[in-house]
Fold each of these.
Amino acid sequence: MMSNKSVFWLRCEKKEFERRSALTPTTAKKLIDAGFEIFVEKDEQRIFDDSEFEAVGCKLVENNTWPSAPSDIPIIGLKELPVSSDPLPHTHIQFAHCFKRQGGWSEVLARFYKGKGALYDLEFLNDENGRRVAAFGFHAGFAGAAAGALALAARKQGKELGLLTPYANETAMVEDVKNALGGSGKGVKALVIGALGRCGRGAVDLFRKIGLDEDDIVKWDMAETAKGGPFSEILDVDIFVNCIYLSSEIPHFVTRDTVVAAGKDRRLRVVVDVSCDTTNPYNPIPIYNINTTFDKPTVAVDVGPELPTLDVISIDHLPTLLPREASEQFSSDLLPSLLTFPNRSSERVWTDAAKLFQEKLGEAVQAEGLA
Ligand SMILES: NC(=O)c1ccc[n+]([C@@H]2O[C@H](COP(=O)([O-])OP(=O)(O)OC[C@H]3O[C@@H](n4cnc5c(N)ncnc54)[C@H](O)[C@@H]3O)[C@@H](O)[C@H]2O)c1
C-alpha cells in the first residue's frame, strides 16, 4: 500500500453506542475530488453504510486495522481509542480528551511519546479568532435537553428513564419527547447555563420545539453567573442544563448540600450536564462522579428517602442520538481544515494544534516520569 501526503484513513469507532463519524460519504467525496485518497475501515457501528463510502470512491479496509497501516498515513477518528499502553506511531486526528487533565490523560499521551506519534485534537482546532473550526455542540445541547425532558417525563410516571436509542432525525426526537410529556412540554421550566454557546443554543432550541413557554426557558451565560454560585435559581426549575465551556476554577453551581437544604419543595428534578466535566477537578456540579450511558442514562443523587428524586444525565457523546445530522454538520465544518492537512507544517490551524500537543506531551512525560 503506497502512501502519499494526501491520504486519510478513517478508523472504526470502538466506544460503545458511538455511531457518528469524523468523515461522511459527503465529505469523503469532496476530499477525493480534491485529490485525496481515503481508506475507510468497515464499521457496522457507524451510522453510514460501508457501501456509501465505497460508492464515492473510498477504499474499504478491514475493521480496526489502522495499527498496521503504514505509519505515515494519518488516522482520523472521532472518540478515544480503547484503553491500552501500546505505543502510537501514527499521526491521529481525533478527540482524545486528555489535554485538560481528565482521568487517564498522561497515560494516553505517554502512548504517543513511546510511539513517536502525533495527536491533533479536534477539540483544539481553532480559527483565527480562537473559535473551534468544528464542534458538535448544537446537537449535544439539543439531544441533552431532550434526554432531560424524557427523564422528567419518566419520573412523573414514577419510573426511571430507560434505554435511549439514536433517532432517525430531529423531528422524530421532538415528537417522541412531546409524546412522553403528554403532547407538549408546556408548563415545564428549564434553566440553561452557557445559553449563548453552541450546546446552549441547541438546548434552548429543543425546549422551544417541544413547547415550553419562552419565559420558562431561563437563559444564563457569563453575565448571570458572575455573582458566583451556588445558585438557588437552579433549584427552582424542573430541568437544569449545564452547557458552559469550563476553562478555569469557578464557584460551584449547585452542590448536594444546597439540594438537600432546599427540602421537600425543591422543583429541580433533572440535571443534564452536557459539559460533562465529570473528572475535571473544577467540575462546577459536584453532585455526581460518573458518566452515564445510553442504556442507563441517569444517575440518582443520594438525597435520602424523604426528599424528591434528583437525576443527573452525564452522557459525554450526546450528539450520537442524532448521528447522521450531527456527523454531516461536524464533518462539513472540519472539511476546509482537512483540505489543508497536507500543508500542516505551515497551516496555522494545524501548527497551533501541534504546538499544544507538544506542550501537553511535555507535561505528561513529567507526570509519568518518562523524561
Ligand atoms: N456531552 C456531550 O456529548 C458534549 C458534546 C459536545 C460538547 N460538549 C461539551 O460542552 C461544552 C460546551 O461546548 P460548546 O461548543 O457549546 O462551547 P461554546 O464555547 O460554544 O459555549 C460555551 C458557553 O459557555 C459560556 N460560559 C463559559 N463559562 C461560563 C460560566 N462560568 N458561566 C456561564 N456561562 C459560561 C460561554 O460564554 C459560552 O457562551 C464543552 O465542554 C464541550 O466539550 C459535550
Amino acid sequence: MKGRRCSKNTEKAQSMRTLNHPLNAAGLWCEVLTASAPGRPALFLDRDGAIVEETDYLCRVDDVVMIQGAGAVIAAANKHGLAVVVVTNQAGIGRGYYGWDEFKAVQDAIAAALAAEGASIDAVYACAHHPQGHAPYAHPDHPARKPNPGMLLQAASDLALDLGKSWLVGDKAIDVEAAKRAGIAGALQVATGYGNAERERASVFASATFEIRHGRSIADAMMLPILKSSNVR
Ligand SMILES: [Mg+2]
C-alpha cells in the first residue's frame, strides 16, 4: 500500500530508541559493516527505488521488495573489490513516521535477501534530517541530506575511498546531484522508483568530468566501467 506509515514516535521515544544505533554526533546513521582496504572505489547505491521498490516511507519488513538485479550487481561489486555503500535520505524518521528500529529491521531484511544471492553491503549511511523534520532532525538544508554530498563524503573519509573512480546508482536527480558534488566519476540514473519522472531533471548534471548514464534498473550497473569483468580480483 503506497504511503502507509508506521506508528508515529514521540520525540522522547525516538531519542531513547537511538541509543543502540550507529548514529554520529550529527544524528547521521554511519554504519561500516566490513573491514575495508583503503583506496578502493565505491559503488554508491541509493536504497528506495534503486535496490528496493519505492513504497514511500518504507518502514515495514513485509513491504521490502528487492529490485531484480540488485543482488547480482552487488555480488559483482563485491567480487570486483568495490566498496558497496548505501546512501539514503530517511525523511520519514525526521518527520516522526517511524524510527531507527524500523529502519534497522528493513536494512536487515535487505541484507538477508542480498546474502541469499551471495551479495553484501559494506557500509550504510542514512540522513533523517529534513526541513519539515522534528527535533533533533529539523534542518533547512542539512549537509548530509541529498542533493548535498555529505553522506558520500563521510563514507569517503570513513572508508578511505577513491572517489574519482566511484559511481552511484539512484533514481532521482538529487542522487545524481549529490554524486556530482561529491566529485565521483558518474551516476547511473535508473528508471525504477521515481526514475522515469526524474530522468530529465537528472540529465542536466552531466559535464566533461561527470558522466551520467540512464538505465532501466540497477541491473544495468553491470555495464559500468568499474564492473567490467577484467577488473575482477
Ligand atoms: Mg530513491
